[in-house]
From TrEMBL:
Coiled coil: none annotated. Belongs to the UPF0382 family. It is a multi-pass membrane protein. This is DUF423 domain-containing protein. The lineage of its organism: Bacteria, Pseudomonadati, Pseudomonadota, Gammaproteobacteria, Pseudomonadales. It is found in: Membrane. The keyword Magnesium does not apply. Keywords: Membrane, Transmembrane, Transmembrane helix. The keyword Transmembrane helix applies. The chain crosses the membrane at residues 44-63, 70-91, 97-122. InterPro entries: DUF423. It holds the Pfam family DUF423.
Amino acid sequence: MIRSFLLLAAFFGLTGVALGAFAAHGLRGSLSAEYLAVFQTGVHYQLIHALALFGVALLALHLPSKLLKVAGGLFTLGILLFSGSLYLLTLSGIGKLGIITPLGGTAFLAGWLCLGLAAWGFRR
C-alpha cells in the first residue's frame, strides 16, 4: 500500500505540474478564459490530492489502517473523476462530462473523512 500510494503521488504530482504548464503555455490561446479556469481547477485539485496521497503513504508507515487505504483509494478515484472530467470537458467541449465531476468531489470528501477517522482512532 505504501509503495503504491507513493508511486501514485509522484505520478499525479508530475502530471499535475505538466498539465498546469500545458494549460498556461499551450492552451491559453485555444481555450476561453472560462474553460482555462476550469482546466486549472482540475490541476489545482490534482496537485492537492497528490500531496494528500503522499501524506497517506507516510502516515501508513506509523498508522497501518484500513481507513488510510480507503482514503488513498478515494483520493485516487477523486483525481481521476474530478480532475479527469474537467480536463476532458474543457478539451472536448462535451458539457455532459460535467455530470461526473461531483462524483469525484464526493470521493475527495469521503477520502478526507476516512483520513480524519483514521486519525481519530490513532492511539500511541
